[in-house]
């Protein structure tokens, strides 16, 4: 395992054996995130979603506790208001988290998803598969915006269930 992969893996909780180390929710708000949507919250919130080739970007400001997460399906699209497309969803997430009170310079990000769930597309000679394209769009926008990616769980051949906390960036990932 590469040093980057080890550092990334250690930053994510990986429930195993059917027993999840998730702390109790207490009064924590909970939300389910559908594809093509995002959740932005000023209050602590635990967001759950399921990803295949789709990508989720979790973004938070550790000092203010404001954060959010998106779930996009395709890397690019021409509809400037559709969060189904990475080129729109990532920039919109950044803008909305800052509008909700996050400090732009304090933002941190985590990336999830981008799997190649259909073996027929892996090694098809068509270049990068959809999941890789989704990951690359998200990563490039975050680089362009100067937002560090502190951890990621991306690509591979299996989908993921993601639980992301908007206030502190804690994330739990389970392979499906």
Key features of this structure:
single chain; 176 residues; alpha+beta; 60s Ribosomal Protein L30, Chain: A; 5-stranded mixed beta sheet; 4-stranded mixed beta sheet; 3 helices; 9 strands; 21% helix; globular; disordered N terminus
Describe the structure.
This protein is of the alpha+beta class. The protein has one domain: 60s Ribosomal Protein L30, Chain: A (2-Layer Sandwich). It is built from 3 helices and 9 strands. Helix 3 links the parallel strand 6 and strand 7. The two termini are 21 Å apart.
Quick overview of this protein structure:
The protein is an alpha+beta fold. The protein has helices spanning 3-10, 86-99, 130-144; strands at 29-32, 37-41, 45-51, 55-60, 67-71, 108-113, 149-154, 160-165, 171-175.
Helix content: 10-25%
Main beta-sheet strand count, sense and barrel state? 5 strands, mixed
Give me the Rg, rounded.
Answer: 15 Å
Question: H/E element string?
Answer: HEEEEEHEHEEE
CATH level 3 topology: 60s Ribosomal Protein L30, Chain: A
Distance between the termini: 21 Å
What topology does this entry show?
Elements: H1 3-10, E1 29-32, E2 37-41, E3 45-51, E4 55-60, E5 67-71, H2 86-99, E6 108-113, H3 130-144, E7 149-154, E8 160-165, E9 171-175
Parallel strand pairs: 1-3, 6-7
Antiparallel strand pairs: 2-5, 3-8, 4-5, 4-6, 8-9
């Amino acid at each position: 395992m590469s040093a980057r992969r080890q550092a990334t893996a250690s930053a994510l909780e990986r429930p195993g054996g059917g027993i999840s180390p998730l702390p109790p929710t207490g009064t924590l708000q909970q939300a389910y995130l559908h594809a093509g949507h995002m959740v932005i919250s000023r209050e602590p919130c635990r967001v759950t979603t399921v990803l295949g080739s789709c990508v989720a970007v979790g973004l938070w400001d550790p000092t203010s506790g404001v954060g959010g997460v998106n779930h996009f399906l395709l890397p690019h699209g021409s509809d400037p208001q559709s969060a189904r497309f990475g080129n729109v969803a990532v920039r919109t997430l950044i803008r909305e988290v800052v509008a909700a009170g996050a400090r732009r310079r304090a933002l941190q990000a985590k990336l999830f998803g981008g799997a190649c769930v259909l073996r027929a597309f892996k090694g098809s000679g068509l270049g990068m598969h959809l999941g890789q394209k989704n990951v690359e769009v998200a990563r490039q926008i975050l680089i362009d915006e100067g937002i560090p990616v502190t951890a990621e769980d991306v690509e591979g051949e299996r989908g993921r269930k993601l639980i992301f906390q908007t206030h502190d960036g804690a994330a739990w990932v389970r392979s499906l």
